[in-house]
Dipeptide epimerase
Amino acid sequence: MSIQFLAFAEAFPLAREFRISRGAKTQADVVTVIVTDGHYYGWGESVPYARYNESISSVLAQLDSVKDRVATLKDTTELLSILPAGSARNALDAALWDLRAKQTGKSVYALTGLSEVKRCYTAQTLSIDTPDNMAKQALELKQAPLIKIKLDGELVLERLAAISQASPKSRLIVDANEGWSPAQLSDWLPELKALNVALIEQPVPDTDDASLAGLNPDILLCADESCHTSENIDTLANYYQAVNIKLDKTGGLTEGIRALKKAKDARMQVMVGCMVGSSLAMAPAYCLCESVQFVDLDGPLLVAQDRADGFTFEHGRMSQPSPFLWGLPGQYGQQFLASTWQHHMTEEAL
């Protein structure tokens, strides 16, 4: 049965400016893919990321270049040889899983053999600001179980101290986005432990991973920008105790499952993470969360208006409501996707 798909850009304004060590953004720019077999429809979303030399236009061009090859796909594993790891493959992979759930009458959990997520607490993210403003952001979270803090190389201890004082019961994840030197990391580690930091994401540039060898820190170090696919895991296990699996890096759930297994085999802890996007982007990643140690899928909390029938959040607890926008059997959403398909096909024809 022939598969057709279309891809288009969408933008989600953010609830507030989101700032990391590499810059700030006020909206989430995403690529949405809809696939159909002529009867059923599926969809997915990805977030092109400039750090990996991606843009909306480059991802749309990638997808357009494989339309003929996708028409005869038998399953998502064939995508691994058609598209490289990245957000183009992620959006298409997600859409194909959703389509398959509709075709087979089985959930993506059943199709993949993954354990259905019963309970999940996600980190909630604070973007870089002054210590006082970051403390105010932390207070708004009302003692969230897990807070993720974006930092650069400035005022690190001052910012963390302010947040820890504002939310003393919260465990903290620090995300430096490659913004520290190995020397800074070594200097700050003892005090970070005292401030209830449980994990540090990618403290050093991915070119400096080897500098972490033999460090044996009291806080988990987690590879993020250094970790893309399952092929990276064995090397990273020499330097890190954890990896951050993001489907926009693995190129979708299909490879994400392989990366999760490889990390477990290497006895590494796992964070499932995200770029800033809607619940549609989080949904495939959520399927991995039953057996991981850290979840960071709060993207929908950062946008001003999420998609309909997306995740619900209560004091850090992330839940999949019913009805839900992705990955389940049945006719839910089919009329909307068919209408959206027709709208964009008409626009392309004009």
User: Anything to note?
Assistant: The two ends are 28 Å apart (CA to CA). The chain has two domains: 4-105+329-349, 124-319. The chain has 14 helices and 13 strands. The domain at 124-319 is CATH 3.20.20.120 (TIM Barrel).
